[in-house]
Structures are given as C-alpha cells and as structure tokens.
Amino acid sequence: MRTIIVGGSHAGITAAKTLKKIAPEMDVVVLEKTSTVSFVASSINLYLKGELADLAAGSVDTPEEIRALEIHLVLNATATKIDPAKQTVTYKEHTPAKVELQTLSYDYLILALGSSQFTLPFHSKKIAEQVLTYKNLAESQQVLQKISDAQDITIIGSGYIGVELAEALSTQAKKIRILERMDTLLFRYYDKEPARQISQRMPKNVQLKLDTPVLDINSTAKKLTVVTPLESFKTDLVIYAVNARPNSQLVKDQLDLDADGTVKVNDYLQTSDEKIYAIGDLISVPVAGDERRYVPLVSGAIITGTLAAENIVFGNRRIFKPMQRTTMSVVWGLYIGSTGFTEDQAPYYNLTTIAVEKEFTDHGFNERTGKKLWLKLVFEKNSQRLIGGQLLSEFEETSLINLISMLIEQKSTVQDILEAEYYFSPLLARKSHYLRDLALLALTKF
Ligand SMILES: Cc1cc2nc3c(=O)[nH]c(=O)nc-3n(C[C@H](O)[C@H](O)[C@H](O)COP(=O)(O)OP(=O)(O)OC[C@H]3O[C@@H](n4cnc5c(N)ncnc54)[C@H](O)[C@@H]3O)c2cc1C
Predict the structure, then answer these.
(1) Banded model confidence at residue 123, pLDDT cuts 50, 70, 90
(2) Which of 135, 141, 255 to mutate to test the pocket of ligand 1 (most atoms within 8 A of CB)?
(3) Confidence class for position 290, pLDDT limits 50, 70, 90
(4) Gap from CA of 90 to ligand 1 centroid (Å)
C-alpha cells in the first residue's frame, strides 16, 4: 500500500514518520518542492540572536534522517496535478540537469501543502522587492541579506512573528517600527494589560504604533514611503508579518474548500474525497466546541499529521479534538505564554468568564530571587471550567502553559485544579503550586 504526502514541512513529515512507525510495511512517499524538510520558519530570529550558526541548519530534520527511516523523500518536487478519480499525483522534479514530469499512483494521499504569508498586491516590481515575507529557507536567506543593508525596518503586524522578529533585530543599531491595526499587540493571545507589559520591555530603537493600519506603500528614490491614516514615513524595508493563507490552489477544483480557502475536512481529517486527507496549515481546526478557526501553528501541524496517519492505518478511529492555540516565546528577557481564551476574547464566543491573576515572587523554600512570575487563569462562569491561561515570567517556567492547555482539554473545573495532585519538594517547587493558589482565589469569586 502506498501513501503519498504532498508537502514535507512539519505536518507532512510528522505524518510520514508516524506512518512508518505504525505501518513499517507501507510505501511512504513525500514530495517536497523545496530542498529542505520541516524548516523552522523563525530560524532567522535564532540566527540573529546567535543561536544558529547557519540558516540552512534551521530544520527539525535533515533529508538524510528522513531517508534513514525508509521514507521515500523526493526533494525539489512540485506537485502540479492531483487526479482523485485515477488516484494519481503528477509532479515536476527539478534537478540541476533537467526538469522531469512524473506521475505516481496512491492508495491514500495526504495533503500537507501548508500556507504562505499574505502581502498586499503591488504593481511596482521595485516595491515588491523591498516588501518581504519569509517562511522557507530561500525566503529567509533573502530577508536576512536585505536586513543587513537596511537601517530603518518596518514590520507590519504585531503577532508573534512581528514581535519576535523585532526582538531579534533590536540588538542591532537599527530603527525598528511595528505597525499594528488593532489597539493592542499579540491580541489573539493576551489581554490588554499583559500585552502592555510586554510592550514596555521594548528597547528605545523599537517603536510600536497601535491603531495604525497601512493604507499604501510607495517607492521614493531608494526608500519606501509607508502611508498610514495619521502620517507617512520613509523606511528601507517592509516586512509583512500578518496572517498566513492556505496553499489550497492546487486542489480547489477537485476538493471542497471552506469559505476561508482552507480544505474542508471531517473530524477524521478526510477531505471531500475519502482517500485524501488534509493536515496542518491547509485546514481550519475546531477551537471551541464545533467552531472551526484558522490556527496556523506547528502544534496543530503535529497533531493533525499524527491523526491522519493513525486514521489511514487503523481506519478512522481518532477524531480531532478542539485546540487551545497554545504558544510560548521569550522576548526581551520575558517568557510569555498563552493557551485557550483570553478574557477579552471570551464574549465573542458567547462565554461569560471569571478571571483570576496573581504575581508570584517566591519560587521555592530556599530561594528568594525576587524574579517575578505573573499568571492569569480564565474560567467559564456557569460550568466553572478552565478555558484560558496567560503567563509572563522573568524565569523559565514554560511547562506551566502545556499543563494549563491539558487541563483545559480535559475540561477541568476550578475544583479539579484545587484538588489536583502537585508534587511537593522544598528544593524544586513553591510551597503551594501556582495553579492551586489561583484556583483557591477563583473559588471565592464564583
Ligand atoms: C516567520 C514565521 C514564524 C513562525 N513561528 C512559529 C512558531 O514559533 N511556532 C509555531 O507553532 N508556529 C510558527 N509559525 C507557523 C508555522 O510555521 C506553521 O504553522 C507550520 O509551518 C505549518 O506547517 P505545515 O507543514 O502545515 O505547512 P508549511 O510549513 O507551510 O509547509 C508546507 C510545505 O509544503 C510544500 N509545498 C507546498 N506546495 C507544494 C507542492 N505543490 N508540491 C510539493 N510541495 C509543496 C512547501 O514547500 C512546504 O515545505 C511561524 C510562521 C512563520 C511564517
């Protein structure tokens, strides 16, 4: 039996590895149009911070590691046609010597075509060359080269991509400007107050402009002019760090798509053709009950890659559970993490909430470092269930966010969290667990 996977990034490679693990006899073919697999899109930040010697090393796996698992990996291979009736994929393989067109049949097909970053369409080539996005290795190399020539850089969007890039660039003697159309940064992940605390950490060479949509970008001499409602200013380089769009063009005439352009899938990740599964950034995922949203994250790529492989091998038995959009980062010395709903978001999902927050300064029996950890939990008022958590910390306590994510997934109530078993060790932990303290606080509010 053969499964072809189109797209060799986080989702596709996870599906391929899982298939080979649970069905070693299966012929697993991965077609990937670039020359890398599972490239980490934020490698540029690691490189700028000196944590990666070479951008080309910014991949989770190497092609050699994947081939050693007996996965048939074809690089520089762009799928150009899917024929669901004949169960074939046609692809163009670019080798230095020639471009070859090949057709391969499948028993199952997994689409892991991912997404591309959005930019405004520009008529002038000159502007297009100075207004960039990046995700794969080639795009990241191009952006890195342009960054080194630029003194004044404008980033559009204050989501994780924009904020992390600004942080990585801020150690250089450059002027960085972040333009955000909303009135707060990282608005999908943090309430306004923690977002303000994150922005207060920005050094002087980073300027955050909220409530500032970009109306136009023009080219003047060697500079670009960015036009916003209140002002226009000159800059050397614009980097778009806004929403991703699914790469569903290839299958738009063969498979059903959702209104947002993602490929429509059922709970088992099957598309409108039962032999074809779709995963990762190509699909929308359930976030609250049955509601589906576009959440382009590596965590979702890994979950959906795993589930599609299991469902192909064992016959649709695992359904996709709602995601919490769990994220974690570290910017300007502050660990920031979020999962589930924020208090600000909840009303848009018709949820009434009780929220509790606390700043902790003591982190163990013998330790009084003075370093702070701030934690917020959001509960749904009627059910008393945990629905969200946000963390800002001056020290690394990042696994708390994964724990909160799992408590949300397991529909834990305030009482469950209060009565949970937390280990006790005077050398390693606080006298009372962070979550226990907050649950106790919350209990008094219901
Ligand atoms: C700058 C940046 C930073 C990010 N940082 C983070 C982060 O820190 N944490 C996080 O969780 N998420 C992050 N993300 C989001 C994350 O990168 C995506 O959610 C993730 O890459 C999705 O994986 P995927 O495999 O579904 O799709 P993609 O990574 O988009 O991969 C799709 C693959 O398919 C290939 N492909 C496309 N069309 C064809 C074709 N016709 N034939 C053959 N191959 C094809 C592409 O070359 C690509 O390799 C970031 C995104 C960006 C842009």
Answers:
(1) low
(2) 135
(3) low
(4) 22
